[in-house]
Give the backbone structure.
Amino acid sequence: MAVDKPAFQVAAEVLAQVARDERVDLDELKARVDAGTVVVMGDGTVQPLGIGKGLRVKVNANLGTSPDYPDVEEELKKLRAAVAVGADTVMDLSTGGDIDAIRRRIRQECPVLLGIVPVYQAIIEAEERYGDTMKMPGELLLDVIERQAQDGVDFMTIHCGVTRQTVAALRSSPRLGGIVSRGGSMLAAWITQNNAENPLYERYDDLLAILKEHNVAISLGDGLRPGATADATDAGQVSETRVLGELVLRARAAGVQAFVEGPGHVPLDQIEANVVIQKRLCHDAPFYVLGPLVTDVAPGYDHITGAIGGAICAAAGADYLCYVTPAEHLGLPSVPDVIEGTIASRIAAHAADMVKGVPGAREWDDKMSRARRELDWEAMEHLAMDPGRVRLTRGDRPTADDKACSMCGRFCSVRANRLVDGEPTEDNA
Amino acid sequence: MAVDKPAFQVAAEVLAQVARDERVDLDELKARVDAGTVVVMGDGTVQPLGIGKGLRVKVNANLGTSPDYPDVEEELKKLRAAVAVGADTVMDLSTGGDIDAIRRRIRQECPVLLGIVPVYQAIIEAEERYGDTMKMPGELLLDVIERQAQDGVDFMTIHCGVTRQTVAALRSSPRLGGIVSRGGSMLAAWITQNNAENPLYERYDDLLAILKEHNVAISLGDGLRPGATADATDAGQVSETRVLGELVLRARAAGVQAFVEGPGHVPLDQIEANVVIQKRLCHDAPFYVLGPLVTDVAPGYDHITGAIGGAICAAAGADYLCYVTPAEHLGLPSVPDVIEGTIASRIAAHAADMVKGVPGAREWDDKMSRARRELDWEAMEHLAMDPGRVRLTRGDRPTADDKACSMCGRFCSVRANRLVDGEPTEDNA
């Protein structure tokens, strides 16, 4: 592996904890971190986590205020809800209210890794100072990133791959949905309006120096990701992925851990190809995907649409799923939306873990199947991904026979099985 | 194609309507029906429907009373809800109350194809008459099927493939979850306890004669389907599929349209193989799957688990998805569960239609993407799979700027796109 680059800042005890949590060999994990195929984040203050090759697929929950809904208390409720149902990481995407203060509150309360998207704050500050986001000086972007890094976050999504060249590639193959990433669209507009290069690309070395100093990992944002299934895997998207691959190598060389973001909206039959392309072009950097959504027509249910794409993508090699909530494409998610979204992504991640041979994944399912066979409702609740939901549903539909459920009652297949096997039933025991 | 077998009873105008609805060539459709790779059901009283090769993937919603919840009015609410959100067919699986009367009420009100599972009623009648379902005379099964057929239903799930031989195969490779089909488990128990062959297999020709007379299609039930991911694609399941293939040919020869049911619980990496095996062993009969669920650990969210499996299965060639509701494994579904389950399966079906090149599928998504690009909220609502849900979510989260949404407000990527493209925005128009 690389020998003459600065080492990533991962403490030995953090690495050891991740190896234990994941039930993987410590030396192998260390080699993967060194090679950049696994990213390990987290120090003493938050739960350390590894993301990448051979590890459990992780789930991120986005939260954050919007101009219409700037109340931090509501976002803290979402934070607690997401963590309670098993989100591995959280991203604060706040764009409303005092976003410095909001981020600090969230950081204080957040027991898991926290990521942010710095460009939002830069856009807002540019609007405040210059009355027009298009007048943002390039310097402001790096200033904001430095201030945020000083505050302490674990990773940042930075859209360095939206460049003059990739925007030109995008134009070469016109899109139905255009650019749907907020950061990506603002930067592409800035590049076009100012006829200048993206400062995050032009000053990438300075950016890496800031991240290195504050031990922040970089999530290379896919500003040109498709936002319509019709646009998936097009010239704009693939050009950006190519650039992100180059930036992965530069980040590794600078001692900054890097992973790469991906789509978005992708039809079922292109998902696997997207993973192959990303892994190849980005030198096996961990792959962090949003969805992908396998159809555009189900707003209100995009957590399901995203779970379908996420499961296939993770089974094909994606390492980290950003949740999609039922509110996607419609508005800011509510607390129940955050719960639904987190669980939907966890289902996708776990379904993939099972077939990827992730240690412990298969055993969980087998324990549940055994509990079902034994009609052990207590164990079923305990083993469920969301025990609260099981309790609620069972409580809503009481049954005269508390060993069975209200669907089959006495016509229970589990009991009939005992007759097949010649085992005693309750009736003839 | 077969020339000396009795023709299937499909009226020319029904065939023509299905060809129009599906935008497929009439002669090609007719050839597929003759070959048995497409089943067309429905007469003057219900919406005719084709299921199989080259057609849109269909979605079934199960409903029906249970011993604990015998109220038909509640089931009629579920029927209306399922049809309102686009269920293509409905199955009445009632096991509580006066199930003859319930079936007739549902039949009266049901505007789509109706299927049933006759063995439930036979079990209940056996229990009433003989005090023990295991004392059911084989004759009763055929009597019940004849009475139900006279009443008029479009198709019946009949578990003819649970035989002495397939139950023995099941025993040869022990299972974690046993038999989870209610009909399958009761028949396997009956076979074992009575040391006799399944009357539905032994008297299959008599059964086909009844179905032929009343123009009822047969859905060859998979009584030995896996109910735990650990049991997927095992000896019991594959042996039964092999027998079902034999029964498909005999049904076709008798002029009875046939399709075949499939799992169940299947890990992601075995789904495609399941489709290949079923299509090959069952002579390309339409494939009707329940889920499949890709993990066992998410009770309360099995509509999502099932949508993941259903999408992959349908893309690989399955033709017909039986929904799974959030209440699966926990209790009888509520009306909201029926809605969630139906939409989840429709998402899976449509995601597959898109990549199978089903006429009109891709266009729907593209219309939605265009509406998004134009921030045309009225069109987005109209095009959504569930417009009511879109209205509700938007209504819950009003925004100061009714052209945008409460997630991004003025930081809307769609608007930034106009700057990239040099188009007028509202601000500078």
